[in-house]
What does this fold into?
Amino acid sequence: MRLSTIIFLLILIGITGIQFINVEKTNPPVTADLDAPIEVKTILQQSCYDCHSNETKWPWYSKVAPVSWMVSKDVVEGREHLNFSDWEKLLPAKQRKLKEEIWEEIEKDNMPISNYTLFHPSSKLDLMKKQTIKKWAIGN
Ligand code: HEC
It folds into this structure.
Protein backbone atom coordinates (compact mmCIF):
# COMPACT_ATOMS: atom_id res chain seq x y z
CA MET A 1 0.00 0.00 0.00
CA ARG A 2 1.21 3.51 -0.74
CA LEU A 3 1.93 5.79 2.23
CA SER A 4 -0.73 8.28 1.08
CA THR A 5 -3.30 5.47 1.02
CA ILE A 6 -2.37 4.44 4.55
CA ILE A 7 -2.66 8.04 5.79
CA PHE A 8 -6.01 8.41 4.06
CA LEU A 9 -7.28 5.22 5.67
CA LEU A 10 -6.07 6.31 9.12
CA ILE A 11 -7.91 9.64 8.77
CA LEU A 12 -11.03 7.83 7.66
CA ILE A 13 -10.85 5.47 10.63
CA GLY A 14 -10.29 8.44 12.95
CA ILE A 15 -13.30 10.37 11.64
CA THR A 16 -15.45 7.26 11.88
CA GLY A 17 -14.16 6.55 15.39
CA ILE A 18 -15.02 9.95 16.85
CA GLN A 19 -18.64 9.50 15.74
CA PHE A 20 -19.04 7.04 18.61
CA ILE A 21 -18.13 9.61 21.26
CA ASN A 22 -21.48 10.49 22.72
CA VAL A 23 -22.58 14.10 23.17
CA GLU A 24 -25.75 15.59 24.60
CA LYS A 25 -28.33 16.04 21.80
CA THR A 26 -31.60 15.80 23.66
CA ASN A 27 -34.71 17.92 23.91
CA PRO A 28 -36.12 17.65 27.45
CA PRO A 29 -39.88 18.27 27.85
CA VAL A 30 -41.16 21.85 27.59
CA THR A 31 -42.82 22.64 30.91
CA ALA A 32 -43.27 26.42 31.15
CA ASP A 33 -42.75 27.91 27.71
CA LEU A 34 -42.49 31.69 27.37
CA ASP A 35 -45.82 33.45 27.02
CA ALA A 36 -45.20 36.59 24.97
CA PRO A 37 -46.95 38.51 22.16
CA ILE A 38 -46.84 36.48 18.97
CA GLU A 39 -44.57 38.92 17.12
CA VAL A 40 -42.01 38.74 19.95
CA LYS A 41 -42.25 35.01 20.31
CA THR A 42 -41.85 34.38 16.58
CA ILE A 43 -38.59 36.35 16.52
CA LEU A 44 -37.22 34.55 19.57
CA GLN A 45 -38.23 31.19 18.11
CA GLN A 46 -36.50 31.97 14.81
CA SER A 47 -33.32 33.41 16.32
CA CYS A 48 -32.80 32.05 19.82
CA TYR A 49 -34.78 28.87 20.47
CA ASP A 50 -32.19 26.54 18.94
CA CYS A 51 -29.86 27.27 21.87
CA HIS A 52 -32.16 28.76 24.49
CA SER A 53 -35.06 26.32 24.66
CA ASN A 54 -35.77 22.60 24.82
CA GLU A 55 -37.04 22.77 21.22
CA THR A 56 -33.65 22.68 19.52
CA LYS A 57 -33.71 21.68 15.87
CA TRP A 58 -30.75 19.40 15.31
CA PRO A 59 -29.86 19.50 11.59
CA TRP A 60 -27.95 16.50 10.19
CA TYR A 61 -24.56 18.23 10.32
CA SER A 62 -25.13 18.95 14.00
CA LYS A 63 -25.02 15.20 14.53
CA VAL A 64 -21.67 14.64 12.84
CA ALA A 65 -18.53 14.91 15.00
CA PRO A 66 -16.61 17.14 15.45
CA VAL A 67 -19.33 19.72 14.53
CA SER A 68 -21.70 18.01 16.97
CA TRP A 69 -19.32 18.73 19.85
CA MET A 70 -19.43 22.47 19.18
CA VAL A 71 -23.18 22.61 18.57
CA SER A 72 -23.89 20.56 21.67
CA LYS A 73 -21.66 22.78 23.79
CA ASP A 74 -23.52 25.92 22.60
CA VAL A 75 -26.90 24.35 23.35
CA VAL A 76 -25.93 23.06 26.81
CA GLU A 77 -24.36 26.40 27.78
CA GLY A 78 -27.10 28.43 26.14
CA ARG A 79 -29.82 26.58 28.06
CA GLU A 80 -27.89 27.09 31.30
CA HIS A 81 -27.92 30.86 30.87
CA LEU A 82 -31.42 31.22 29.50
CA ASN A 83 -34.08 28.64 28.71
CA PHE A 84 -37.37 29.92 27.31
CA SER A 85 -38.94 26.50 27.94
CA ASP A 86 -38.75 27.21 31.70
CA TRP A 87 -39.52 30.93 31.48
CA GLU A 88 -42.96 30.97 33.12
CA LYS A 89 -41.57 29.18 36.19
CA LEU A 90 -39.12 32.01 36.89
CA LEU A 91 -39.81 34.69 39.49
CA PRO A 92 -40.85 38.06 37.98
CA ALA A 93 -37.64 39.68 39.24
CA LYS A 94 -35.55 37.03 37.45
CA GLN A 95 -37.58 37.49 34.25
CA ARG A 96 -36.98 41.25 34.40
CA LYS A 97 -33.26 40.74 34.83
CA LEU A 98 -33.09 38.26 31.95
CA LYS A 99 -35.06 40.60 29.71
CA GLU A 100 -32.48 43.31 30.38
CA GLU A 101 -29.71 40.86 29.52
CA ILE A 102 -31.54 39.78 26.37
CA TRP A 103 -31.71 43.35 25.13
CA GLU A 104 -28.08 43.97 26.12
CA GLU A 105 -26.89 40.97 24.12
CA ILE A 106 -28.99 41.93 21.09
CA GLU A 107 -27.99 45.59 21.20
CA LYS A 108 -24.32 44.61 21.23
CA ASP A 109 -24.93 42.09 18.42
CA ASN A 110 -23.56 39.29 20.63
CA MET A 111 -26.68 37.21 20.09
CA PRO A 112 -27.50 35.21 18.06
CA ILE A 113 -23.84 34.09 17.87
CA SER A 114 -22.21 34.85 14.53
CA ASN A 115 -21.18 31.29 13.70
CA TYR A 116 -24.87 30.37 14.05
CA THR A 117 -26.20 33.18 11.82
CA LEU A 118 -23.72 32.04 9.19
CA PHE A 119 -25.62 28.77 8.85
CA HIS A 120 -29.03 30.28 9.71
CA PRO A 121 -29.18 33.62 7.84
CA SER A 122 -32.87 34.06 8.69
CA SER A 123 -31.97 34.22 12.38
CA LYS A 124 -30.24 37.57 11.88
CA LEU A 125 -32.08 40.44 13.53
CA ASP A 126 -32.88 43.49 11.39
CA LEU A 127 -33.75 46.88 12.91
CA MET A 128 -37.48 46.14 12.98
CA LYS A 129 -37.00 42.88 14.84
CA LYS A 130 -34.56 44.46 17.28
CA GLN A 131 -37.07 47.23 17.97
CA THR A 132 -39.82 44.69 18.65
CA ILE A 133 -37.63 42.81 21.13
CA LYS A 134 -36.44 46.03 22.75
CA LYS A 135 -40.00 47.18 23.39
CA TRP A 136 -40.89 43.85 24.98
CA ALA A 137 -37.67 43.55 26.97
CA ILE A 138 -37.17 47.01 28.37
CA GLY A 139 -40.37 48.78 27.42
CA ASN A 140 -39.22 51.48 25.02
C1 HEC B 1 -25.96 29.03 18.60
C2 HEC B 1 -26.50 29.10 19.90
C3 HEC B 1 -27.12 30.38 20.40
C4 HEC B 1 -28.09 31.16 19.81
C5 HEC B 1 -28.78 30.93 18.48
C6 HEC B 1 -28.37 32.22 20.73
N1 HEC B 1 -27.59 32.09 21.85
FE1 HEC B 1 -27.61 33.27 23.53
N2 HEC B 1 -26.11 32.17 24.35
C7 HEC B 1 -25.51 31.08 23.77
C8 HEC B 1 -24.43 30.61 24.64
C9 HEC B 1 -23.52 29.44 24.33
C10 HEC B 1 -24.42 31.46 25.76
C11 HEC B 1 -23.49 31.40 26.97
C12 HEC B 1 -22.11 31.83 26.67
C13 HEC B 1 -22.01 33.27 26.26
O1 HEC B 1 -22.47 34.16 26.99
O2 HEC B 1 -21.48 33.51 25.17
C14 HEC B 1 -25.49 32.42 25.56
C15 HEC B 1 -25.81 33.41 26.46
C16 HEC B 1 -26.90 34.25 26.34
C17 HEC B 1 -27.35 35.18 27.35
C18 HEC B 1 -26.73 35.35 28.71
C19 HEC B 1 -25.54 36.28 28.63
C20 HEC B 1 -24.84 36.34 29.94
O3 HEC B 1 -23.95 37.20 30.04
O4 HEC B 1 -25.11 35.56 30.83
C21 HEC B 1 -28.42 35.83 26.85
C22 HEC B 1 -29.25 36.91 27.55
C23 HEC B 1 -28.65 35.33 25.50
N3 HEC B 1 -27.71 34.37 25.22
C24 HEC B 1 -29.65 35.75 24.67
C25 HEC B 1 -29.87 35.28 23.39
C26 HEC B 1 -30.91 35.77 22.51
C27 HEC B 1 -31.90 36.86 22.89
C28 HEC B 1 -30.80 35.08 21.35
C29 HEC B 1 -31.62 35.27 20.09
C30 HEC B 1 -31.72 36.59 19.56
C31 HEC B 1 -29.70 34.14 21.49
N4 HEC B 1 -29.16 34.30 22.74
C32 HEC B 1 -29.32 33.22 20.52
C33 HEC B 1 -25.87 30.49 22.58
C34 HEC B 1 -26.81 30.99 21.69
